[in-house]
Design brief:
The protein is an alpha+beta fold. It has three domains: about 180 residues, 2-Layer Sandwich (Alpha-Beta Plaits), CATH 3.30.70.2220; about 210 residues, Alpha-Beta Plaits (2-Layer Sandwich); about 90 residues, no CATH class. It has a six-stranded mixed β-sheet with strand order 6-7-5-8-9-10, sandwiched between helices. A four-stranded antiparallel β-sheet has the order 2-3-1-4, sandwiched between helices. Helix 14 runs antiparallel to helix 15, helix 17 packs antiparallel against helix 22 and helix 22 runs antiparallel to helix 23. The chain starts with a strand and ends with a helix.
Length: about 500
Amino acid sequence: MSKYIGLTIGPIYKTLQHAKKTRELWAGSYIFSYIMKRLIQQLKGRQFVIPYVDNSDPEFTELLNGRMPVGIFHDRMIFKAEDGDFERLKGIKDRVLKEIAGGIAASIDKDQPAVEHYIKGYFRLYFCETEIPGDYKTVNKEINSRLDSLELQQGFIREEDTNIIEAFLKKVNKGFLVREAFGNGFSRFKSIPEIATSSLGLRDRDPNKYGGIFDPYETTDRDEDPDYDIYRDIEDEFGMDTMQHHRYIAIVHADGDSMRGTISALADNDDFQKFSRALFEFDLEADKEIRDFGGETIFAGGDDLLFFAPVIGRDQKNIFDLLDGIDRIFHSRFQPVDSRPTISFGLSISYYKFPLYEALSISRDLLEKKAKTGNKNAIAFRVLKHSGQYFEAVIERGTGEYCDFIKLVQQKGPAGDGAKFLASVIYTLFSQDMVLRQIGADKTRLRNFFDNTFNEAIHRRNKGQLDHIQELVWSVFNSTRYMNGDERGRAIYSALRFNKFMRE
């Protein structure tokens, strides 16, 4: 019978609560992945159950021993123990935390012993060792159950007059984490307006103007000034108009569905390792997809993703195109698995000055409480306008209504005319809600309603979109996902509002 050691680390959500800027959120997540990386580096030769560790894999070893721009190690590890590993891990943990404390102390110009004392009380690394018969599936299940119990025993973390972690996150651009992740030549993590406007290619147009606008944005606390509008500077300096969506940022949480069932279907340890490798490949490919779109990955560990993205990215693709691209990558990684998992998304779109942690919480709640209910394999999205109004919907991927929604938001058209057209359609459909409830599931009656209602010049100019709207309405009213007319109405209304939002 073999011995295994499991380890869990925290407090993740407490740390992320301190984040007010993109760089702080990245660092608050990355530091846990970095601690795991340092632990794994000092456990050479061990057989890991989780996460994926293969020192014969060049792609993995490059990330383990070199630059790791995105956190790929999640908050738990399980490995096959050798004699003395439990005591050895205690020493490794202390050395790693001491190293972290040294880096933090240098970043915030504080006395290292005081920082070290704080860090050892702040970070919670719990681990257990036990003998378990069976394959990696059994080990994974049993150890994770024990780690769940250990996490419930976490003690009270006292508050300090000076919150060292919060102070460190504020100065992370000049700290050791940024150097470890990106190298010495890296200047700073992108701000929300930079990500939101990435499709404009401002840096390529004029690097000096770009730096003059964005470099002082956070360093001089311009982002805290309610009267300062960075988009005026962009428009003045570059001589261009910006769209409404450039002032909004997408925050996305993604998580694999039914992963326990997928793991249970694995035949043996070799299949388990292949599964771990597939998750590792998914993380790297998803991160590339996000960056190519113009976004920034905060975390990519296993089947979990957290990232920022513009509403409309490069090549005029929209955020749903990006989510579909990530979904395709996910499915391509797990084709050999009999019980192939799906992936769900929580998508929060909010104004660039909206509190970051609140937007983050909305995204997480959309994923956990809406997208991952029912049949899962869904996108739950909310657009929170600057006025405080919002609209939201849950759309299950692979359904007729999802396909029609995607066709609608991908339909091209002149922005101003398109927005005016959509406003009139939204108003009309909303005012005729009771009529739609009677005829929405009947394709012939619905077509007659659209032909008779939308027959003005502006409707004829946008007939392509109007046809897609009609198809979406019919699909929603024939869907089994929605329980009543109110849910169907909200789904249609939110889809149209999102399309209008992109064109304003």
